[in-house]
User: Which sequence fits this backbone?
């Protein structure tokens, strides 16, 4: 029987029949996996609890013709259960797994997998405010995908910054000479926060005031959705007060 074993984080699930689910996962070694988990919608299924979104599991799958079959799942990180206890964390985590689903192809990405697992672990432990964890994850995920934003030097000419005009379509901040008419300007505190989130300087990020956090979140959302070329449904539910 052709089987394989891997670590995977659950991105989303869909109902199948009366008791089964189709589970979409980002794995460490086998890319993105879509597999059937049989019987997991029964009330007493511990197996199903390990295959909920944002959970990380050691899985064994049987290779099927169109969809694989999950045979075993052992929990490696019950992050989904802890994240779901807090609305701000839950909405942030929902955006993370939706982004990971859209930003990775079937071949997956080890870097994206490790980033997502680390972000969900941090979110479940409440290590940082949920919105900061989310914005940092989005910026890093985009950077891994090849869309690293510039928050200091001009993204078009390379002219040394700081520059304050931000244009998602051009890759970040740009010099006044190449800025499109009417493009928004960012506060220097916001730019400093964005740089801290991208680089993981948490003490600097957490010291930022609410105005900078709110402006930074808007920038990150616009930049993310531009490069994904589609909206993130879960983003509209994010609690920006946390």
Assistant:
């Amino acid at each position: 029987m052709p089987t394989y074993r891997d670590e995977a984080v659950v991105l989303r699930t869909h109902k199948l029949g009366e008791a089964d689910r189709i589970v979409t996962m980002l794995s460490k070694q086998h890319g993105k996996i879509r597999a059937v988990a049989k019987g997991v919608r029964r009330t007493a299924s511990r197996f199903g609890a390990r295959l909920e979104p944002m959970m990380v599991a050691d899985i064994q799958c049987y290779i099927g013709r169109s969809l694989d079959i999950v045979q075993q799942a052992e929990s490696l990180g019950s992050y989904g259960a802890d994240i779901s206890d807090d609305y701000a964390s839950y909405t942030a985590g929902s955006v993370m797994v939706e982004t990971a689903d859209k930003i990775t192809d079937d071949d997956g990405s080890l870097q994206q997998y490790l980033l997502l697992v680390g972000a969900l672990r941090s979110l479940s432990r409440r290590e940082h405010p949920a919105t900061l964890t989310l914005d940092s994850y989005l910026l890093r995920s985009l950077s891994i995908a090849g869309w690293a934003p510039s928050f200091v030097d001009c993204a078009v000419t390379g002219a040394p910054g700081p520059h304050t005009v931000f244009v998602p379509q051009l890759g970040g901040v740009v010099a006044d000479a190449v800025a499109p008419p009417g493009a928004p300007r960012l506060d220097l505190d916001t730019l400093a926060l964005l740089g801290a989130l991208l680089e993981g300087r948490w003490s600097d990020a957490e010291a930022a005031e609410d105005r900078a956090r709110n402006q930074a979140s808007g920038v990150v959302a616009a930049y993310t959705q531009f490069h994904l070329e589609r909206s993130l449904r879960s983003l509209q539910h994010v609690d920006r007060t946390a």
Observations:
- Residues 128-237 form one domain.
